[in-house]
Here is the input.
Amino acid sequence: MTNTLAKPTIVVHLDGGLVQYVGSDSHVPVIVVDHDLEGAGEDEVKTPPDGGRATVRLEASTDMSRESAQRWMELAT
Here is the structure.
């Protein structure tokens, strides 16, 4: 069950430096910016506002309950 909190909690999961999935207790857009261009096609490379070069894509977050998000927050603090 998701909610519509004004301040959602987002949990980013990493494995070997790679984001595996992003979970949130609210529907939020997730923008993934990857500055490692190895394997990227030239048509995929963008110029971010801070300069440089990166691939940029929009991902959907994985739904999680507010209780689960709160438990992650407790583990992180």
User: Anything to note?
Assistant: The beta strands are 10-15, 18-24, 29-34, 45-46, 54-60, 62-63.
